[in-house]
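To close the chapter, one final illustration. This time we ask the reader to focus less on the individual chains and more on the assembly as a whole: which components sit near each other, and how the overall shape emerges from the parts.
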Amino acid sequence: MKDTKKSSKSILGALALVLVAVLVAGTLILAHGSTCHGSEKTRINDLIENAKEYDGRNVMVEGEVVGDKLQRGEYVLITVNDDPYSKQSIPSGSKPKGVGNIGIGVWVPNNKAKEISVPGSYERQGQYVRIEGVFNRACAEHGGDMDIHAENVEILKSAHLIRHHIQFWKLLIVLVLSSITIALLLAVRRPAKKIE
Amino acid sequence: MIFAPLREDLKLIGWGIGHVILGVGAIMLIPLGVAALSSEWNVALDFAIGILTCLIFSLTTELTCHSEKDFSWSHGLIVAAAGWIVAMVLGAIPHYLSGHFGSYLDACFDLMSGYTTTGLYLLQDLDHASNGLNMWRHLLTYVGGQGIIVFTLTFLFAGTAGAFKIYVGEGKEEKILPNVIQTARAIWIISLTYLIVGSAALWISLSFEGMSPGRSLLHSIWLFMGAWSTGGFAPQSLNLLYYHSFLVEILTMVIFVIGSFNFALHYAVWQGKRSEIVKNVEIRSFATTVTITALIMGIGMQKMGTYGNALSVFRKGFYNLVSAHTTTGNNTIYATSFIKEFGFIAMWATIIAMAIGASACSTGGGFKGFRMGILYRSIRWDVRRMVSPESSVVVEKIHHIKDIFLDDRMIKSAMTIILCYVAVYVVGGILGIMYGYSPSVAFFDAVSAASNTGHSAGLVSPGMPVLLKIYYIFAMWAGRLEFVSVFALGGMIVSLYRGERLKRTLR
Amino acid sequence: MKRTRRNKYKSRFAFTTGLNYFLGILTEIAFVLALSSAVMLLYFVLEKTVR
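The assembled structure is written out below.
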């Protein structure tokens, strides 16, 4: 009787030990994982709002490349947005989310910019990239612009074309309105802009 | 005693508005074409719906409101004021159908902002907007800058005697040429010539800055339209900061300063009276106030110390200040930078610059240089009268194309309008404060809307309170039309309900 | 004969108009550039002298 009690106690103790070990290991792995993947990621809005604190510091931002890829000497200038539309834009079916675009100009050295290809626009969702680099509140090199000088660029997701299916309900409205217009034109009969 | 408008009056007004709307529909043909050329078929359908609705409205007024009468002064003012409202509601159709707006009110806000060349916007996800929509945004600010009425006068009204009365209603009193249609055409010739010159210069510089030829062509036309009309729209959400280009900033600055000049001044200079550019009261007023506000801003920037070198002070400080003073609203900084990087003093220097604004009979808004000139001269006149012998006759004159003798009536009307602007600024600012915005931000955006500038310190966003959206729409509209037409419209609405009815007894 | 002379006057008129427009545009651009440089110059002079 005593023995069984003792053994069950030791089993419980062993179980508890294993549980603690698993928990500790789990938290450690999770913590490690999160430092590897994005605990340093900064929202662009934070950069703009707290430019003084971030000035000159190394930052990491993730977002969609939009607009143009502008060649400027030894740099390529891109704009990176990390607003809600950077994952799904309004032309590709997102509803208005009550905010505008939030983006920042990024100067990428030519040798790092080779993989950057097609920026986002009406026709396509641009590449989703991770930028690591130095944030400038008022970049002395570029006329006081707020920008990031990239040191590392990583493509997280490739660009894709947005398919614009014809919205037939709009076509229907056009047809209805056209017939009303024709009817009115017949009713007016005289040319619409006779004023003399 | 006020008299209620007769059925004939209402008919005449409806007929006038119908013509203005026909003009709006005609302008939409251009973005329709751009959308079709870019194979944006859904966008093209949006514009087709817009055009057909305008056409139906116009035909309905033609059917129901045909009148043989010609416009009187009050008709003209009311057509201008109400025409802009209807043009806003119907012009917002393609905007709303694009899906970029949270509500129809937001779309109307953007329309009014465009027509009045303000430049504030509630459009969401601009960076993914179609070419057709961008064309429409910039085109309506370009046409709005010249005046929708001027547009319809040029192309639709075949020369009625009452046309001038609608033209005046739109906040332009200048008779550049004896005939109003010729005046309207002169305004268009100046604007179109600059459109070609300015867009070409921008096209070259944008190509030089690494943009592909096709996109840079579209961007150059849009940037020109935004800058020339002192609207301040740009095709990307970062506005002028998107280009990170000194060349483009210089070009747009030259364009919006020239765009803020009085059309009568342009006409005089183009006719060979080139010395007018240094003699004109509005130019002198602009040069004085821009210098003063720039120096105040300089003091503020020194205190903040954000922008270290000369180039940054020019590109961030001076550029945005001149953009504010000409009531353009093109900017090279983020909205919150006005608070965080400019600081209190520089921010209020910008507010003062916006409040003063551009020239009369231009595309700009604000008090206008002409009124500032009158204000200054009237004070000087008073001082001179005080120190002169009692029996002497002291005259004061201002130079605008020709010398004009100052009289009390001119001073009074200038003061009244300035007072109206101040009232709209203050009410907007107080409303913003009541909604919990900081006073500087609330006044910054309220002045920006009522002076048709378009700079924002962060208040204007799709999430702003509905009442503020409506007030800002009103402020933009009233500020652009310089209040007189708005009073006329208000007076008519009141008299509809409270005026004496004459119809049965007199006719 | 009459017609050619009129054409000559017409083209001369067009030329002077065009020239005037061109000079007008140049005047306006020059004025803007002069004004902005003057303000910036004044700013830097004051910055260096008044402290």
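The radius of gyration of chain B is 23 Å. Residues 77 and 485 of chain B are 5 Å apart (CA to CA). With these observations in hand, you are ready for the problems at the end of the chapter.
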